Amino acid sequence: MLHLYLAPLDELIAREDFIRYPMHYFEGVWEPEWLNDPFGRSVIETIDKVPLGEDVERSLLEFGMRVEDLCTGTKNLLLCRHLNMLNRMTMMGENCYPFLLDSAEEKDITMGVTAYFLMRDDALRGRKVHFVNDDSYVDNQVDFFDKITDLIGDGLID
Predict the structure, then answer these.
(1) Which superkingdom does the taxonomy of this entry point to (predicted)?
(2) Cα 57 from Cα 69, distance rounded (Å)
């Protein structure tokens, strides 16, 4: 399940399990298997728009990219999928949300939220999202909008 924890960035930074800059953190921990499994391949093809052959790293080079050049959202998604850390929600765009929710169906993923964002019905597809701050659950765009607006209104993020 996807768990969202709204907090000021300073509070999240103080946590040892928080990944502040996924684009840099990724470069020190990624494994080739992350790129070559079906999830990694799908994320790279969709988010980075790279046509992949059998060997992902070679395909990236042929496309004029290195692993380090992958989009921040791609890196963040792969970190979410393969590590058990508190990841930064604002470091991925709306095109990443369906992949994030797919991963969250297989394992618990907790994201630190420092700014307003909206998950739309096409990403949610009826899947529940847990707001840790008040232990509530939503599964549609309208309820998501109402909940995140209420929590932000309560002063949970700056």
Answers:
(1) Bacteria
(2) 11
Is the CA virtual torsion 12, 148, 70, 37 positive or negative? Answer: positive
Contact (CB, 8 A) for 73 and 47: yes
Count CB atoms within 10 A of the CB of residue 53: 10
| Range of the structural domain that residue 110 is part of | 2-154
Q: How many domains does the chain have?
A: 1
The per-residue pLDDT string of the chain (158 residues; one tens digit each, 9 = 90 and over) reads 999 999 999 999 999 999 999 999 999 999 999 999 999 999 999 999 999 988 888 889 999 999 999 999 999 999 999 999 999 999 999 999 999 999 999 999 999 999 999 999 999 999 999 999 999 999 999 999 999 999 999 998 87
